[in-house]
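lol so apparently i was supposed to do this last week
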Amino acid sequence: MSENTNIESILTENRSFAPPATFVADAGINSEQQYQELWQHAKDDPAGFWGEMAENLSWFKRWDTVMDGEMPNTKWFTGGKINVSYNCLDRHLETERRNKAAIIWEGEPGDTRVIRYQDLHREVCKFANVLKNMGVETGDRVTIYMPMIPELVFAMLACARIGAVHSIIFGGFSADAVADRNNDAEAKVVITADGGWRRGKEIPLKAAVDASLEKSPTVEKVIVVKRTGGDIDMVPDRDFWWHDLMQDASAECDAVELDSEHPLFILYTSGSTGKPKGVLHTSAGYLLGTMMTTQWVFDLKENDTYWCTADIGWVTGHSYICYGPLANGASVVMYEGAPNWPDEGRFWELIEKYQVSVFYTAPTAIRAFIKWGNQWPEKYDLSSLRVLGTVGEPINPEAWMWYHQIIGQERCPIVDTWWQTETGGIMISPLPGVTPTKPGSCAKPLPGVVPEIVSESGEALGPNEGGLLVMAQPWPHMLRTLYGDHDRFIETYFSTIEGRYFAGDGARLDQDGYIWVMGRVDDVINVSGHRLSTMEVESALVAHPKVAEAAVVGFPHEIKGEGICCFVSLKEDEHSEELQAELIKHVREQIGALATPDQIRFSAALPKTRSGKIMRRLLRDIAAGRESTQDTSTLEDYTILAKLREEDD
Ligand code: ATP
Ligand code: MG
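anyway here it is w/ magnesium ion bound
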C-alpha cells in the first residue's frame, strides 16, 4: 500500500451567503454566467484575454506579443513601452479625476492631508527629479524605509517614473534587516523619515538606517522626511532633508518609456516559512493584474472611498493601496498608525469619518477586533460600507461570521482573497456581485487564474481531498525571479510539481467547486497516518467562545507519530485545567476524535510575523522542546518566544 500523502479535511462548514440583490443590481460583474464566460475565455485563450484587458492601460508603444515563452520564464507584452507612474497619474489628469482625492491620509496623532490627483502628480514629478539629481538612474535600486505617510507613495511612483527599482522595507524592521535587504538588492539610495508614530511612540527610523549603513556599502545617499521632528543625526554629504531637496526641484518630469518587462520593484516575503525571498515584479503585467483585480474583486466604482489597512511594506500595500487603486483613479484612505490608538475604536471612527465604502483588512486584525469587543464598532456609523475584504491567512469561519454580522451588518459581501507576494495580485476570491460566499473559503479563481489541487505526485484530486495548490498557467502579474538568484526561483516554485507553479499552500476543492485553503503544506501534521491541516484544528478552537486565537503544531509522539499541540490565547485570562479539558472536548466534538488535542497551552500572545501571520515554525521547536536555529528576522515581538519557553518550564 502506498502511503497516502493527501491532507484529510475534518472541518465541515455548510453556511452560505448569497450576494444581496441590491448589490447584484449595481455590480460590474453580476452573474455566474458572465464570470464563467470570462474565466473560460481567459483559460482557453490567455493571450487573447489579457491582450483585450491591456487595452485598459496607456501605452507609449503597443506590445508585439502578449505572452512570450513558457512558464516559468514567460514574458508579457514584449515589444511594448509603458510607464506605471504615467498610468497611475498622468492619464487621470486628462479626465474629471484631475481634482479627485487620490490619497486621503490620516496620521496617528490625528493630522490629516488630502492629496488630489494633480497634487500627487506634481509631488511625484518633483521627487523624481530629486532622485535624478542624486544620481539615480533607470535600473538602480532604491530602498524605501518609511512610515505610512504620503511621501512613501510619492517615492514609489517617483521611482517608477524614472525606472528605478524600489525595495520597500517595513518600517518596523531592525537595522540588520535593513542592511540585509540593502545588500541583497545593492541599493544606491535610501529614503526614510526621522521617525514614525506607533501607539503614541516614535519609531526611530533614521537611527536604524544609520546603523544599517555601517553594513551596507552600496548605499551612497539618504533622503529623510521630517515626520516626527525627533532628534536625529544628519551626516554631511550623505544625508539630505526631503523638504530641502524638493524646494528647488522642477515639477516637469516626463515618465520614462520603459519596456513592459522593466523591473518595477523587489519585495521580500513575510518570512512565515523561512528566510525571506526577494521577489521581483516587472512593469506592464503587474500593473495590469493589480488594476483588473482591484476592479473585479472590490467591484470598484468611481465614487468609492477605498481603504486597505495593510502597511505598504507588505505586498498587499503595494498592490492594493498604491498600484491597483491608483491605476483605477480611486480615492484611497491611508492611515499611519495602530488600530488601537488612541483607543480600540480608531478604525471604525475612520470609516465613519471618511465614509469608507470598501474596507480590506487581515484575519489577524479581525481576531483582535473580536477580542476588544463589539462595543467599539457599535459606537460608530458603518453604513457607508459596501464590500469587505480579508487577506493574509485563512480566516477562521467564526471570525468571518463576526466580520459579516458586526462590521458588514449582513449587508456587505465579504471577499476572502487568496494570494501571495509572488502572485503580485489576488488569485482566488469571490466576486462580490456574483459568488455566494462560504465562511472560510476563498471561493473561485479569478479570470486568468487556473488553479489545480494535486497529490504530491501531481495527480488531480477529487472533491474534498486536500493536496497541493498549484497554478497550471502563467499570469501577467506573477513574479519573474528571486532577485539575483534565478536558480532558487526555479527550485522554490517550479520543482515540486512538473510544469506547475507551487508556493507552499495546501487546499481542497469542495463539491461546489469552492477552494478551501488549508494553510501551509509544511504545517500539516501526521497523526497516526492521517495528515491533518493545523488550520482546521485552529478554526475549531477559535469557534469556542473563550478563545481569541489559536496556533496548532505537531510534536514528536511515540505512538501516533505526531501529537497535536495547541497554543491558545484567550479573550480573558482564565487559565485553568478545567478549561484545558473543556477545549480538548470541544475540538473532539467539533471535528472528531482523530483531531483530539494532546496538549493545550495557554499563552497571552502568539509569535507572529510583522505582517501579523502566526509563525508556526517557531512554535514547532517549542512544542518539541528543541533549541531553535531558525530565521526570526521578521518576528514581531521577540519576547513572546522567551515567554513561551518559560511557560514550558
Ligand atoms: P514566506 O513565503 O516568507 O514564508 P509568507 O508566505 O507569509 O512568507 P506572503 O507572501 O505575505 O508571505 O503570504 C502569502 C501566504 O499567505 C500564502 O501563501 C498563504 O499561506 C497565506 N494567505 C494569504 N491570503 C490567504 C487567504 N485568503 N486564505 C488563506 N491563506 C492566505
Ligand atoms: Mg510564502
